[in-house]
Design brief:
Elements: E1 7-11, E2 26-34, E3 40-48, E4 56-58, E5 61-63, E6 65-74, E7 77-87, E8 101-109, E9 112-122, E10 130-138, E11 146-147, E12 151-158, E13 166-167, E14 170-174, E15 179-180, E16 186-194, H1 196-200, E17 205-214, E18 224-231, E19 235-243, E20 250-259, E21 265-275, H2 283-288, H3 301-304, H4 311-316, H5 324-336, H6 339-353, H7 358-376, H8 387-395, E22 400-403, E23 420-428, E24 431-439, E25 448-452, H9 463-467, H10 482-485
Parallel strand pairs: 15-21
Antiparallel strand pairs: 1-2, 2-3, 3-8, 4-5, 6-7, 6-9, 9-10, 11-16, 12-14, 12-16, 13-14, 16-19, 17-18, 17-20, 20-21, 22-23, 23-24, 24-25
């Protein structure tokens, strides 16, 4: 299966007022679909900022043109080459705001590893062409349920036409970005499910779940979700629209999974999306609302006697367990609040969580803060700013910790490794047996969370490949091919699966 998305904000530039100073601003996206058992379809989407190009006089008004050269090559040579000309709508006035104009193009390729080279040039400008290189692996199988990439949709409608914009009875205009600004409150997406009939059985029931979940660096608690029951066919189609009005700013995964009638997951796909939906809180209102009816002498001892030099540390350390509104209040209070307002906010925060004994709840969490600061803080970051510190504060101490020396699942092929730790939680709220894999990506720095089986956390079962290369001169020192590493031979924790009667060799 695939987990790597290919959305590229490929050419960035500042748009100047003078026409001769304009520089092309374009966005590209590559999305993979299966066409036949022997051929795949890669759709190229391009969107050009209408204010970043030069318009020339044409009959009826003015028009901009962008010349594209698209090449796809593998180890055998060039598999596809095309020259395309994108034209803007004809406009009557170039001094006003110009909308973006788009192109969609289909490219048919066999399974393989390809390198896409795209050159883009404003046909009316003397500016040199911009060039980008995009690696892309295409690998669809016959004997497994699989999902296409997720196509983000700007608009859709039923259509009987046959062209580069239509699929399965719909005209689909792609949304060539993964960024959703404030005011854009609908997210539409399209994906295809392959081989369900062969694997599950003709017209066997299956359920497709889809949801928007926070990534590891996003502490939002809201999840937007839905599901659709389908009957297995040679190819099934999922086209859905989600209301993201209440989705707070942050990074999210749009996640799709297919389950069979035994409720077993048979295929998954995800795509990163970014949301900007800032919560506006008036500073004066925020500070006055902290404790309007409370006096300093009325604070319980556990809050009244706090060390004032640690107020900001205590406040920011609440963020891993805060919702979006609380996080916004914390920022205001920490930056501009008085000492009394900071103490009062801490008290109110814990009183909302434990009305009967807020002191006990606070003192238990304060112990976590102190442990995190002692174990994970460094000269650059406080403990709560590190991945390990954030996880410890959010979930508490792990049930078990193993490292690169004590990891029983480390195979004999892994003769050297970056330092890493695996935290195992036997119970995590309503979840059971969840793990977090942290790797020291840079010598002497804090560990980075690369993979977890917990809900809403980063998911990358190929994390061991990234931890495998310890020295700067070794092969693939800082990255890896997730598509080649992430496969059916790895379980949910990133360990190699054992076949019956097989025992994996280990390093002790």
């Amino acid at each position: 299966m695939f987990s790597k998305r290919f959305t590229f904000l490929a050419i960035f530039a500042t748009v100047f007022a003078a026409a001769q100073a304009k520089q092309l601003d374009a966005t590209f996206d590559l999305v993979r679909f299966k066409a036949t058992d022997k051929q795949n379809m890669v759709e190229l989407y391009c969107s050009v900022n209408g204010n970043s190009v030069i318009y020339k006089k044409v009959p009826g008004g003015f028009q901009a043109s962008v010349a594209l050269e698209v090449q796809a090559a593998d180890s055998a040579g060039i598999r596809h080459f095309d020259k395309l000309l994108m034209k803007s709508p004809v406009v009557s006035d170039t001094a006003v705001f110009q909308p973006a104009f788009n192109l969609q193009k289909r490219i048919f390729l066999p399974n393989g590893n390809f390198n896409f080279s795209i050159k883009a040039k404003d046909a009316n400008s003397t500016q040199a062409a911009s060039n980008i290189e995009l690696p892309l692996k295409v690998s669809y199988k016959k004997d497994a349920v699989q999902l296409s990439d997720i196509q983000l949709i700007d608009s859709y409608s039923k259509s009987s036409e046959k062209n580069d914009y239509t699929k399965n009875g719909y005209k689909l205009v792609s949304y060539v970005s993964n960024f959703y600004p404030k005011g854009l409150n609908k997210l539409s997406f399209y994906t295809e499910i392959y081989n369900a009939e062969n694997v599950l059985g003709k017209e066997k029931p299956m359920v497709v779940f889809y949801r928007i979940i926070p990534t590891r660096d996003n502490l939002a608690k809201l999840t937007i979700a839905g599901q659709k029951v389908m009957k297995a066919a040679p190819a099934n189609v999922l086209l859905q629209e989600l209301d993201i009005t209440t989705l707070a700013s942050g990074n999210y995964d749009l996640f799709v999974e297919v389950r069979n009638e035994e409720n077993k997951v048979v295929a998954t796909q995800r795509r990163l999306i970014q949301r900007s939906n800032p919560l506006t809180i008036n500073e004066e209102v925020a500070l006055n609302a902290v404790a309007p009816d409370l006096k300093d002498t009325e604070l319980p001892p556990a809050f009244a006697s706090l060390d004032s030099t640690k107020f900001d540390l205590y406040l920011y350390s609440l963020k891993p367990i805060s919702n979006t509104t609380e996080g916004a209040f914390i920022e205001k209070v920490a930056k501009n609040g008085s000492n009394f307002q900071k103490k009062s906010y801490l008290y109110n925060f814990w009183k909302k969580r434990d009305d009967e004994n807020p002191e006990r709840a606070w003192l238990e969490y304060k112990t976590r803060i102190e442990a995190v600061e002692k174990s994970f803080a460094n000269q650059t970051f406080h403990g709560y700013e590190t991945d390990q510190g954030r996880v410890y504060l959010q979930y508490g101490p792990p049930s078990k910790i193993s490292d690169e020396r004590t990891d029983v699942n480390r195979t004999s092929r892994n003769t050297d490794s970056r330092p890493y730790q695996i935290w195992q939680y036997y119970t995590l709220g309503d979840q059971r047996n969840r793990m977090f894999a942290f790797v020291e990506m840079n010598l002497g720095n804090s560990y980075t969370l690369l993979h977890s089986t917990a809900k809403g956390e980063v998911n990358n079962v190929a994390w061991r490949a990234q931890a495998r290369y310890k020295y700067a001169g070794s092969k693939n020192p800082s990255g890896f091919d997730r598509d080649s590493e992430q496969g059916s031979h790895l379980d949910s924790e990133g360990n190699e699966k054992q076949t019956p009667g097989q025992r994996l060799p280990q390093n002790r």
